[in-house]
Amino acid sequence: MNIAIIGYGKMGKMIEQIARDQGHDIGVIVDPFAENSASGAKIIKSIESVTDTDFSSINAAIEFTQPDTAVANIIALAERRIPTVVGTTAWHNRIDEVTEAVSKAKSSLIWASNFSIGVNMFYQIAWNAARLVNNFSEYDVGGFESHHNKKMDSPSGTAKILAEGVLSIIERKKKIVWETMDRKPETDELHFPSLRIGSVPGTHSLFFDSAADTIEITHTARNREGFASGAVQAAKWLTAQERHGVFTIDDMMNELFNRK
Description:
Layout: E1 2-6, H1 10-21, E2 25-30, E3 42-44, E4 60-63, H2 67-79, E5 84-86, H3 95-105, E6 108-111, H4 117-133, E7 140-147, H5 157-169, E8 175-177, E9 189-191, E10 194-196, E11 203-209, E12 214-220, H6 225-239, E13 245-248, H7 249-257
């Protein structure tokens, strides 16, 4: 593949490295602060400055920027019919707008709060555990997540998907409380607070606790490699056949889980 990277921060640089290690080319990098790149790709300062010629040989774009710029990037890429992988979080309140733009252009997009294959396996493990625990009322349920202090959103998109999935399974839990409590929780509340500190790439834990014991399920990211590798795999999945519309990581993972 010939890939365009939209956003050349830490994630963009990791995606560049992973993609090149897998034999892919980086044709264009769009970032207002980038001066040069390890791959020698053409640097463009904004998505508005991209020409049709710049994208003429691009097979897919991978977008990791900020919530306030993501939607404009997505729509511009859709209008050029560039299959796009979106790893930016906290823009999903505008999913209807994005879906309309992608559908109108007959383009394709896959988005996720977390493209790590390990995290998406963690979801399934956690939700299967929740199905078991749902039958045993003596177990309370809660969680916790921590990330680096540069992360823009809290709770993380990964935490939201994890906790909302658990909430849909554990019948005795009716709502999630994300903030720190200065009171005891109600029995129908699932508490899932966040911590922002240092350079932590991301840790998510789910707890099932009874008077007799505690079951803990944790995913810890050692670095950003898992996120970047999953994003490149998503680009390959999106372009492996002709696809139109908006997809989520679940669409890709369901295919991977069901492989014989």
